[in-house]
Amino acid sequence: MMKILNGENIVDNRFFKRFGSFEVKAIAEAVAGQVYGDESFLVNDLGTLKDAKEDQISFISNQKYLEDFKSSKAGVCLLEEQHLAIKPESMIAIVVANSYEAYAKVATLFYPPQEVESFIADSAVVAKSAKLADGVYIGHNVVIEEDVEIGAGSSIGHNSTILAGVVIGKNTKIAANATISHALIGDNCIIHPGVRIGQDGFGFAPSAKGILKVEQLGRVIVGNDVEIGANTCIDRGAIEDTVIQNGTKIDNLVQVAHNVRIGYSCFIAGQAGIAGSTEIGNGVMIGGQVGFAGHIKIGDRTKIAAQSGVIGELPANSMVGGSPAVPLRQWHRMTAYLKKATTKNES
Amino acid sequence: MMKILNGENIVDNRFFKRFGSFEVKAIAEAVAGQVYGDESFLVNDLGTLKDAKEDQISFISNQKYLEDFKSSKAGVCLLEEQHLAIKPESMIAIVVANSYEAYAKVATLFYPPQEVESFIADSAVVAKSAKLADGVYIGHNVVIEEDVEIGAGSSIGHNSTILAGVVIGKNTKIAANATISHALIGDNCIIHPGVRIGQDGFGFAPSAKGILKVEQLGRVIVGNDVEIGANTCIDRGAIEDTVIQNGTKIDNLVQVAHNVRIGYSCFIAGQAGIAGSTEIGNGVMIGGQVGFAGHIKIGDRTKIAAQSGVIGELPANSMVGGSPAVPLRQWHRMTAYLKKATTKNES
Amino acid sequence: MMKILNGENIVDNRFFKRFGSFEVKAIAEAVAGQVYGDESFLVNDLGTLKDAKEDQISFISNQKYLEDFKSSKAGVCLLEEQHLAIKPESMIAIVVANSYEAYAKVATLFYPPQEVESFIADSAVVAKSAKLADGVYIGHNVVIEEDVEIGAGSSIGHNSTILAGVVIGKNTKIAANATISHALIGDNCIIHPGVRIGQDGFGFAPSAKGILKVEQLGRVIVGNDVEIGANTCIDRGAIEDTVIQNGTKIDNLVQVAHNVRIGYSCFIAGQAGIAGSTEIGNGVMIGGQVGFAGHIKIGDRTKIAAQSGVIGELPANSMVGGSPAVPLRQWHRMTAYLKKATTKNES
């Protein structure tokens, strides 16, 4: 395949503009870390444990990469206490309480998110009644219908469609080729390409004359600091709203049906699906490809293993797995039991 | 998060234009219901059991909302016989055979679907050979290629792409950012944003020289009154057609592979997937995240529980669950057996 | 529903332009087959076993269609040795080693893939710094940002968005309404409509002050001869790249998370999902709706049954099924065991 190397650097400057170099001391201050080694050493870039050069900084967080850590040539590494003793001898360590959090900060130091450029493309179609705050970015071929409101510092990617009446807060980024209708969206959100928000929910009433479509008269309400992954779909409510509270992060290709209410600071991994009118509490962690039945309530801080099928209420702090989902420990026992029973049969 | 209330009304007039107020008598006539209470009472809007005001109408259909019903302040409620005795005293009841069907009708009374505006955007690119009937709506930046035909009253949402030769019937709505190719689509369909119809199926032939792509020479045939959810994908046939018959409703993020044939009036919930050449009968109900193997036949009126994996033929009227799918009762027994066996082990 | 017949032909000339008729002899040469019957017979088109006319050629590959084969009216049929004795008497046979491969070649003979037209739409927005090779096709309303490079013979479908710095090789086809960013894409690839490549991965670090977004500084590297299905999402790496090697074919609605590495010539069926940093070997076959945990390695030539949940490493040549996935035979035993246990209970 094509040549994919970037010369000396791991981060490709075609796509990302680097700031600094930074002294170890400055980095340590940014992450409230303690330095073991030369504080004046100059760090030029980020790198992985495996590929970082001597003038680059890496981090160790996941134990799976311990071998890479031990043989890493990174000049500097963000790490937690327990890894200090086993670091390569020449490596400068910055010891922190949470190395992944520290890495996130250092990544932003070297590669701060791009400022939104104030720009309205000539090819964009913006209704006269739309209210665009100063400093918005409206990409090429964007369509913005009547009465839309977009707050300062927000951006709409090329070829996206914002239908009548939608309200978008400040510093929210809508990526390219997305469609938003019947929605109020907060501040500091990131909506990835191909997201569909606000279309009709899947509501039908059987009748003697066939299937009646039920008019979908609700909205989608998205709080602040919400991230919604590529090609994810969020239907508007039937009459109540579909709601996603502040700080919740949703991955790609997720289905959120009408009237669903998702609490604060949840994580929803790729291809999960939530059926109509289900309520997800706060701080809930949902694995990939999980499915929820409709009209159920999921308690705060519940953790749901990937591919689970949740068909009933779950109290707060539950940990469940399997389809239908059961307490996680029981799910492990069920799997082990079946394995044992059928391994015996084999001999 | 942002303020999300709409003042007195539940339905947001940013997005939906209300018709009427209506007298209870007029509403009862529209739904063939019997009134218990003041027939001349004026209803101003719709509401949920929980939030409706005195001048609003609600409905009780799902038993899960019985408590909300008993304490509801809705002035009027659509309900079935069995709930009449337990209604709040001051509530005017309209008794009907099917309260959800009645609600669907009342919703359309207050909020009739918007008429399609006759409009062709300047920014739309329409091939000279395309035949657009009178009264179509062609949104901004829409691309319509050669020989496309679009029937009267149909609309194509902004930024959508209709490739060469596609035929779309009357009163069919294609939403924004969709892509349609190699397809004949009937009347009164609703195609939601981001839908992909008519792209190549996943057809490859292994060969001594590597993997050969098999040219996909079929089409997608969509009947009348079909609804296709956001970001759903329907591949065209390999040589036979992929077919979706009249009245079938498909939810978001569903995968329909090449040569699949889906019968009349099926319901297919979100994220279900149907592998190549499988035939689904009429009136089949498919839960969310269900998967079907290829080259199998599913009998009429079959019901398939969410997350099931269907790997073999199913006779008409089957009810199945599990992966691989078994008769629903057996699936429940399998789950119960395993739970019991592993609960015992725990004590 | 609407009339869907094409008169005499099965392949619809609205959508596909037929080349030739071809003599049996010419076809047999193209597929290195041996003719049983009249070599000078003229074949006008392709057809299915069930619907082909006397002047058409069909093929038998899947045993499920044996009855259709025995009663087929196709004048000519591509078949393998074992079916020669049971062919309809009047049918001319072309015996080949691999009838599906032969069909693929004959389909390309009658319906060769369309040549890319050299064209740049007036409505396309192409940055001055973009380098477009001669003979590219840039569709209507396409947006091509700064420093993009597109190789000779490649095409970008209408309403697609190619963000800054992306490199696309030769003879690669990007369909309509797609979004590509932070990616290097090879030659001879097919990227279907609605595909999202290069958006941020799902990377967050919990912190005392809430959830920190981790800047996603990697790329997506796609080799040559890769096919990526409609509405599939491939996130860019966190710092390493997300990589898809030459010859891999990915179906619709698949999720590929950040840092995933997929080897050569894999097949990934619809709605499969691969969590972050997982490495898939070469020649791996992945069924529909399969899920992979993150940070695991899957050996070469592994086969994974549909809907499986793979949570650990798999050695080369594994065959697994179930969720969590176990060796395929054991999975069958587990299912059989449970069925037997619960069938007994029923009697």
Description:
The structure is a homotrimer of 347-residue chains. By secondary structure, the first copy, chain A, is of the alpha/beta class. In chain A, 13% of the residues lie in helices and 27% in strands. Chain A has 4 helices and 40 strands. The longest helix of chain A is centred in the C-terminal third of the chain and has 19 residues, at 328-346. The interface between A and B is large, with 70 and 68 residues.
End-to-end distance of chain A: 47 Å
**Rg over alpha carbons of chain A:** 24 Å
Beta-strand portion of chain A reads: 25-35%
Question: Assembly state here?
Answer: homotrimer
Low-confidence stretches of chain A: 1-7
Morphology call of chain A: flat
Helix content of chain A: 10-25%
Q: Provide the spatial order of strands within the biggest beta sheet of chain A.
A: 8-11-14-17-20-25-28-31-34-37-39-40
Number of strands of chain A: 40
User: The biggest beta sheet of chain A, please?
Assistant: 12 strands, mixed
Helical/strand content category of chain A: alpha/beta
Number of helical segments of chain A?
4
Query: Which protein chains are joined by the largest interface, and how many residues does each one contribute?
Result: A-B, 70 and 68 residues
Mean pLDDT of chain A: 94
Question: Keywords for this structure?
Answer:
homotrimer, 347 residues, alpha/beta, ten-stranded parallel beta sheet, disordered N terminus
